[in-house]
Amino acid sequence: MHSTKLSKQHWLLILTLSLLTFVLGTSEFVIVGILTDISSSLNMTNVKTGTLVSAFAITFAIATPLVMSVTSHLPKRKWMLFLIASFIILNALCVISTSYIMLLTLRIMTAIVTGVLISLAMIVASETIPIKKRGLAISFVFGGFTLANVVGVPIGIVIAEEYGWNATFMLTTFLGGLAFLASFFVLPHRLSQVRSSIRDQFSLLTKPRILMAFFIPALGFGATYAVFTYLVPILKEMGAPNKSISIILFSYGFISIFSNILAGKIASQNAIGRLRFVFLVQAVVLTSLFWTTNQFVLGLINIGLMSLMAILLTTSTQLYLIDLAGIYQPKATGLAASLMPVASNVGIAFGSALGGIVYHQGNLMNVAWVGGIIAVCASLLTFFSHQLDQKQNTSE
């Protein structure tokens, strides 16, 4: 465990978990791109179809920590394989879905499976990879989501345009099958198994340090999404031709791949200490959009920097929550692993809503100030957490 080198088996495991998150991310995010196709097919309004997205996010946020707590005693390998098989079945049923209620029910069930599998993937990566390489491993696992946005979602949308939205779920079913085969042959047989009560699990949420750590990624994602949610109208206000917007959004996703790589490097040493300043830089980048978007080229460069900063926090905060759980409630590391994905969804909802309120009150570019202020709040909370860590280390 104290080795600093990764074996072939380690890399196979990392790539398998990354494939799993790629599949889960594609299934989660592609629905946004095929909503209008579903609306037309099922004779519904776009607003009603949009509940497929919100229902998924709400279920993900609420059910993930609950299910992780209740199932903490289950053998991880068998439980993960069962969940991946369930994912395959649920997506296959989406292919033949003929009603809104059926599709909504399947998406809610898929959200539960997705949240738990993501959390388990993070735990497995954290437990089985040498300590000094955990940051690299977790960044690769998170990288699956980035690739899902950049590669998986566009492919799913193209398939929907050519063969109908049902065919997109054929794609996610097929990808789920690949993830199952890879996981069956690569997932270790001996993974940690902790028996604890639900009370032990949820006692973790009474710890102030855990709650502080939870709101760090929530604020970090909130800062980005206060702006990103309204990126298309921002681009139009900048004078971007309609045909170029999809290319710009693709480029945004491509740049985030490098953000993910940097996230692993930040997490390699003194992660929370480094994050204090990452959030301050993010605040400057987001606030600068208020001025740089007046010039097209400068605005695009600034948006690229925004993408580069967007997910630098992921790996560090994921490991931080797991490590804090090891200190305050070792039996609840499963619950702790589920908190970062939940925090990201909370942050996305909060940032989008706050940005929307400001946007509808007046100048669109005021959302840049909102994003910057939220990023400063994230930095202050991280400074405080780091200070408490230092005091604790000194007292020990």
Give average pLDDT, whole number. Answer: 89
- Count of DSSP-assigned helices: 16
Computed over alpha carbons, the radius of gyration is 21 Å
Largest sheet features: none
Q: Strand pairing plus helix content: what structural class?
A: mainly alpha
Strand content: under 5%
Taken in chain order, the helices and strands follow as HHHHHHHHHHHHHHHH
> What portion of residues is helical?
over 70%
In whole angstroms, the N-to-C terminal distance is: 23 Å
Strand tally is 0
Principal-axis shape:
globular
Describe the structure.
The structure is a single chain. This protein has 396 residues and is mainly α. The protein contains 16 helices and no strands. It has helices at 8-33, 35-42, 46-70, 76-95, 100-128, 134-163, 165-186, 198-202, 208-228, 231-238, 242-266, 271-292, 296-310, 314-328, 333-361, 366-395. Helix 4 (76-95) runs antiparallel to helix 5 (100-128) and helix 9 runs antiparallel to helix 16 (366-395). The longest helix has 30 residues, at 134-163. It is globular.
Report a brief summary of the structure.
The protein has 16 helices and no strands.
Characteristic terms for this protein:
0% strand; mainly alpha; 396 residues; 16 helices
Secondary structure blueprint with pairings:
Blueprint: H1 8-33, H2 35-42, H3 46-70, H4 76-95, H5 100-128, H6 134-163, H7 165-186, H8 198-202, H9 208-228, H10 231-238, H11 242-266, H12 271-292, H13 296-310, H14 314-328, H15 333-361, H16 366-395
Helix pairs in contact: 1-5, 1-6, 1-7, 2-3, 3-5, 3-15, 4-5, 4-7, 5-6, 5-15, 6-7, 6-11, 6-14, 9-12, 9-14, 9-15, 9-16, 11-13, 12-13, 12-16, 14-15, 15-16
